[in-house]
Amino acid sequence: MKKNTVHISLMILLSFSSLACSHNSEAPLEKSVKATAMAKGQHMNDGKITTAQSIPEEQQISLQAKVQFFALEGGFYGLITKQGKHYLPLNLAKEFQQNGAIVNVRGIAKPRMMTIQQWGTPFTITGIKLIKAGLSPNNDQLL
Fold first, then answer.
1. What's the predicted TM-score (pTM) here?
2. pLDDT at residue number 135
3. Cystine design at 122: which of 33, 43, 82, 110 (Cβ 3.0–4.6 Å)?
4. CA distance 98 to 132
5. What is the pLDDT of residue 20?
6. According to the per-residue pLDDT averaged within each range, which of 3-7, 8-12, 16-20, 132-136 is highest?
7. pLDDT digits (tens, 9 = 90+) for 123-135
8. HEC states along 38-88?
9. Residues 87 and 81 sit within 8 Å (Cβ to Cβ)
């Protein structure tokens, strides 16, 4: 009797553990591809990767902004417009990470996205042009 109870308990436990393992809908490789795409400013829909550039122009905004370095949350760069709006670039290329630089930028605002920085509106850049150079990231004046 005791042996049957242990056997039944073991079968139930195995059933639940296999059910829990099968609940994950994404394979590790798919998660990796999705994370890499997001880091590059790309999006995944139904397993297909699309770039931010393929988003219709009417959904993109253009603005001129000053690049500003903030020594908060590990340090990050923000974009501040002449109108005082704050945008948090999600994919600012290294060559534009210059404190005080002025840039013309085009991209997609993501007001519903949350970030660690909790500063400005997250913004995926689809195009950028340097207007005026700023301080390079290696400059001690940023500290």
1. 0.59
2. 87
3. 110
4. 10
5. 52
6. 132-136
7. 999 999 999 999 8
8. HHCCEEEECCEEEEHHHCCHHHCEEEEEEEEEECCCCCEEEEEECCCCEEE
9. yes
Q: Which residue has the tokens 């660690």?
A: 116
* Residue listed under structure tokens 């005026």: 132
How does DSSP classify residue 135?
A: B
With a CB cutoff of 8 Å and minimum separation 6, the contacts of 138 are none
Long-range contacts of 49-56 (CB under 8 A, 24+ apart): 52/107, 52/108, 52/124, 52/125, 52/126, 53/126, 53/127, 55/108, 55/126
Q: SS3 of 121, please?
A: strand
Is residue 86 within 8 Å of residue 119, measured between CB atoms? yes
Three-class SS of residue 129? strand
Q: Could you tell me if 80 and 114 are in contact, meaning their C-beta atoms sit under 8 angstroms apart?
A: no
CA distances from 3 to 8, 14, 30 (A): 9, 17, 43
